Amino acid sequence: MGNTHPGATSPLGMVSACAYSGAYPTGYGRYAKNTEGVPEEMFDRHQASGFTHFQQSGTGAIRKYYNYVRVTPMVQPLDDLGQSWPLEDERAEAGYYAANLDTGVRCEITVGEKVAVHRYTFPDHHSARVVIDLSCGGLAIDLGRTVPLRAQAESMGHGRAQGTVVMEGIPLSVHIEVDSPGWRQMLWYDRRLIPGGTRLDFDSIRHTTLRPFGMLFMGPSRAGQTIEVRMGFSLRGCDQARANLERECGSGEPAFETVRARTRDRWREHLGRIRVDGGTENRRTVMATALYHSLIKPCIADDESPNWPDPGPYAFDICTMWDIYKTQMPLLSAIAPDRYAAILESLIRVCEEEGNFPIGYRMARGADRFFRQASALAHTALADMQALGRPGIDWTWALVHMVDDLRRLYGEDFWEHGVVHPITHTLDLSYAHHCTAGVARALNDHRLAADLERRSRDWVNAFDPGTGLLRDSEFYEGGKWNYSFRLMHDMAGRIRLAGGDAAFSFMLDRFFGYGAAPVKQPGRCPDPAEMAAGYALNRFEGLNNEPDMEAPWAYHYSGRPDRTAEIVNSALTWQFGTGPGGLPGNDDSGGLSAWYVWASLGLFPVAGQNLFLVNAPAFERAAIEVEGGEFVIETSGYRDSPIGVDGIDREPAPQYVQSATLDGRPLHATHLNAADVHQGGRLHLRLGPEPSTWGHGIRPPSLSDSHPKEQR
């Protein structure tokens, strides 16, 4: 189902806003929590009890997540707060969400980077109201509620109010301005008004003592009358929340259209950094949607860290690096390098303050709850940035933290024994040692680089030479087949261990089902026996989880880029679409959508190795706006996918690269140095309907290459 939502967002901005039903996992929608098959319905319709702020995008298996500061337009008494009403006439655009409640209120929301602006159009009513619930948080599923630890709310008069709630250890402050001339404003507690009260303070809140609380604006409305609610957010107190509101909305004037237009322009500018020509209309729609989803997270809130006082970027909703380091981080590096640098600067500061680079980092205090997924993944992004020679990072200081982080948690056993279980952490840590060695070498610390590189060769301890696969172990959301085809830093050695090119390609063929009988797909709600039978196939899981993302490109290293072309073409055609169910799995904060973007462009980044692999693209021509200007991928011999009489894309035959040139010079290899892409240039690919010998002779570089081959 993708687990995305249609709410208003700003590119990599701090704030999102969407209709709130309490459904899993974003707070929007109809469904309960489920990780296999189609989940049960919580509600038989789309509905909302109001509109909340801060939502996840595409994650799964998360319960307590955001949905703070619920705003509810009502023509009912306050006792009805929390009731949900059907949503009608929903409309979503980049930076804008609108719907009608069946109470007769038209609801519109837009957001800026640190603000949200609501506009409600009321029917004729003697007592309309806008209710703001500061106690709201989390989801309406078992154990899904988030309870504030402390809170304060203040009614300041003249349509102004503010408050702070401490959610999961983080103080979230909001400053509110309501454009409602002649309306009264009051605080409320436990659905009871507090006439004349101007402040509420809660020093200690528990699940058993929590009662809803907030502020209310109330008065008569004429049919068609609009009420605007402007909200500035901050993690550093109400004064900064007010300053954020004034900076983006001005002072005391209606701001909805101004904020909406500014965010629309920001989206247009970001989405315009990749342009494609050719392909079907459906494919162009999916491409634009994928690029949009790739740019929602992480949230970057400059000067907003609640955990250290200094100015500078603060990135959260890195949820999780396990999902985004292979695809989305390289995409941000290419088309949003300033924001990419801000994320890395923030991660370094997190490591400095909290002692480690996190695998996942939320707007919450506490231990890294995602450390079981993987180890030491920030090292890949840091190595890529250093290799590109970008400014903005103190690399000597970064290297200190990179080295220290290699010895935390699973890294301690790896340091001592050269292997650690779950076995996938052995791959992570050996790879991170290789990435860190590159940074050390660039800083002329050759002794450290040599030691790190020596330890990076311990990847071999993870594999069973008898099978060519990973050793038996526990695996996080996958099995040893899923993890056995990662693009390691020594793929040449990995292929030798498997028995050579032919044997490795044969293993990949089995993984992807070449020559196998068709598999009967499980039902909408598969039972345990069906799931067990599926896992026992030891097959490619079809992009519905992170471990399989890069496996199609493993063929490049064994001289079979034609197989990559076939598998990627099939995935783009059959696993992505324009309607509900148009994603094959959780979008995972844009990690899956970023996969689609790269695969459609005919490029795949090998994170941590300053490398791109080349494949047949899904479009006739594409242009990426990069630091050095523009990188163009153009083709000859391209054929559009056929379209049926019903307007649906038909299966396109795979297209294979016959030959290639880079800036007019022959390119005989299936890879590019990342600098070739980031500095701009022109890649021309001649395509044909049959596999060719292109790329068979020169393989992408590997650590164990005795004499690294030239790529051109």
From TrEMBL:
Q: Which residues form the Glycosyl hydrolase family domain?
A: 240-688
- One MF term in the entry's GO annotations: peptide-N4-(N-acetyl-beta-glucosaminyl)asparagine amidase activity
Q: Tell me which GO cellular component terms the UniProt record holds.
A: cytosol
Any Pfam family from its record, for instance, is: Glyco_hydro_92
- Alphabetical GO biological process terms: carbohydrate metabolic process; glycoprotein catabolic process
InterPro entries per record: 6-hairpin_glycosidase_sf (IPR008928), GH-type_carb-bd (IPR014718), GH92_N (IPR041371), Glyco_hydro_92 (IPR012939), PNGase (IPR050883)
Which residue intervals make up region (Disordered)?
Answer: 688-712
* Domain Glycosyl hydrolase family 92 N-terminal, chain residue ranges per copy: 2-234
> SUPFAM superfamilies from the xrefs?
Six-hairpin glycosidases
Matches recorded under PANTHER family = PEPTIDE N-GLYCANASE PNGASE -RELATED (PTHR12143), PUTATIVE-RELATED (PTHR12143:SF43)
Descriptive protein name: Putative alpha-1,2-mannosidase
